[in-house]
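[recover] target loaded
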């Protein structure tokens, strides 16, 4: 993705929405969850998502963006250092959501 102010703003907005959904799922599965979530955070190693909670998180993200289905196999195609990271999930959402994102509401526009 080209680094322009608009793209950076879009990525930050999408990250905020993804982060909110991940926090909710992580806290449902780990009551004492208090880790910081960054773009570089591993969904599995850093956030502690297992297969069930990962699916729940992806479904929550899909619903937040109105995406029918995110192809999780695309996360496998990322470079090893970005494998299953929050950033790779954000980028996947951007590629598969043909929507505008309202930064104030986090909803489709």
């Amino acid at each position: 993705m080209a680094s322009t102010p608009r793209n950076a703003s879009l990525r930050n907005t999408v990250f905020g929405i993804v982060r909110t959904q991940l926090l909710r799922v992580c806290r449902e599965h780990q009551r004492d969850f208090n880790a910081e979530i960054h773009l570089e955070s591993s969904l599995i190693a850093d956030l502690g998502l297992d297969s069930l909670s990962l699916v729940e998180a992806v479904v929550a993200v899909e619903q937040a963006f109105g995406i029918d289905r995110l192809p999780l196999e695309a996360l496998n195609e990322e470079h090893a250092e970005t494998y299953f990271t929050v950033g790779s999930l954000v980028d996947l959402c951007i590629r598969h959501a043909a929507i505008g994102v309202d930064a104030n509401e986090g909803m489709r526009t």
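[recover] notes: Residues 77-81, 100-109 have pLDDT under 50 and may be disordered.
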